[in-house]
Here is the input.
Amino acid sequence: MTIVQKLAQQVLQQNTRAIARSISLIENETDSAQKESLLDALHSYCGRAVVWGITGPPGAGKSSLLDRFIGRLRRLNKTVAVIAVDPSSPFSGGAILGDRLRMQKHATDDGVFIRSMASRGHLGGVAGATADAIKVFDTAGFDFVIIETIGVGQTEIEVMELADLVLLVLVPGLGDEIQALKAGVMEIGDIFIINKKDLDGANRLKREVEYVLGLQENCTAKSTPPVCMTSATRDEGIDDTLSVITDYLEKIRGNGQLAARRKDRIEKELRHIASAKIMASAEHFLNIDSRLDSWVEDVFHKKVSPYKLLNRKIGEFLKELHWQ
Amino acid sequence: MSKKIRILIAKPGLDGHDRGAKYVARALKDAGYEVIYTGIRQTPEAIVKTAIQEDVDFIGLSLLSGAHNELFPKVVELLRSRNAGDIIVLGGGVIPEADIPGLKEKGIQAVFTPGTPIRDIIAFIESVKR
Ligand code: B12
Ligand SMILES: Nc1nc2c(ncn2[C@@H]2O[C@H](COP(=O)(O)OP(=O)(O)O)[C@@H](O)[C@H]2O)c(=O)[nH]1
Ligand SMILES: [Mg+2]
Here is the structure.
């Protein structure tokens, strides 16, 4: 048995260290062959966990809400894994991963596994390794895997492609609520949570959100997402929100939306892997014998135009690859 | 992409002095490490479980209350009992010079007292990292 096969087997047996190490192996990508064989070994066990995404502006209370949700799910005897993503500094590459702080009362509970993840330059509100880390937790048998994103903005919507459902958390008093509503992030929420309902302006924000969602309904035909109100700090509205989530999951399971969404996810994954691999061999092709350098000379001295050159060369490339 | 060093900064026990821990966490982030900060009032048990889940290379303990002789070795002991003795433990805070040899003997690999420049901490990490 190879090291990686052994690791996969230990993940199946819910060995904490093996789960943690597998995620590091995926994150570090120092050895992509190892990563690939690990994920190959996990593949047939995946698909049982329910994956939530929780997103919303920084400070909205995502981690605090998760802390409450974890508590409720544990009372139902469900196991929960959390992947909490925070940004890496573009300057130092370092990161402070602090989401965990709000969930730390679950640190000693064996039914809860929290993993902090730095974005490491990946755009989209999650890390490059998030999607594959979900598979590790799924294989290890966690009932729920919950992804907390960095935040939300027009480009930070990748969580939509990873999760079975997305909770979009909004709060009054950020000043730019309306901006957020306009910015095109509303589409990613399956369920809306107005958190900090203990603060002024929560009811007004709820009405505004419902108004905007009502407008969207007319053009998209998708049914209007539910809007819940919570106070994570006062532990209010959590049970109601949980039952809205449960109903929603039941609905999308029944009407085929869940399966469609997961197939969509696989399609995106296949496209992503395919283009990454093609890019890698293209890069290799371009660098052989510094041919790119001589092509630059040829184009610079007008011996040939870029399209004419490359249409010919790409034919050769495909032959080298034996793809023809 | 290459391996990133991950460090858990934790405050065991009831000590509420968190300035130093936060300062060290931020400085280590600026030095390019991934730092997990879990806040005050952590039990050794919670610290060890967190470290294992987060697959950290180092645990940095911070204590200014005087309970280090009891709590620091407890963390090392628990790590060893969980087969995670490879995680390197270091400590800092208000710790009398006289206590440092005893702590080192019990597996705390380095201790940094008030006024330590951050570059000394980084130099230690770089010298022992795997
Ligand atoms: C500021 C301060 C407070 C603030 C704390 C604010 C906060 N949120 O942190 C307040 C006013 C709240 C406070 C309260 C108390 N304090 Co006070 N406080 C201090 C003081 C003056 C400075 C501490 C500080 O912030 N230093 C700045 C930081 C950056 O330095 P540092 O923490 O030492 O960190 C450096 C190194 O130690 C090291 N380091 C620290 N942690 C780590 C971790 C790692 C991994 C690494 C590598 C390095 C490292 O690197 C840092 C950079 O060099 C110290 C005296 C002193 N000179 O240390 C007393 C001191 C710590 N407090 C003391 C006491 C007694 C108390 C109280 C009990 C007082 C009381 N009776 O109410 C309370 C208890 C509070 C509590 N809940 O625990 C005593 C502790 C005595 C002891 N150890 O025996 C001290 C030593 C004062 C004294 N000489 O008596 N305090
Ligand atoms: N008033 C109030 N504050 C809250 C509520 N939920 C969270 N907070 C506070 O908002 C801050 C940010 O919370 P956090 O969970 O870290 O937000 P995140 O960045 O979205 O994960 C913290 O200080 C929380 O205590 C709430 O319902 N009401
Ligand atoms: Mg958070």
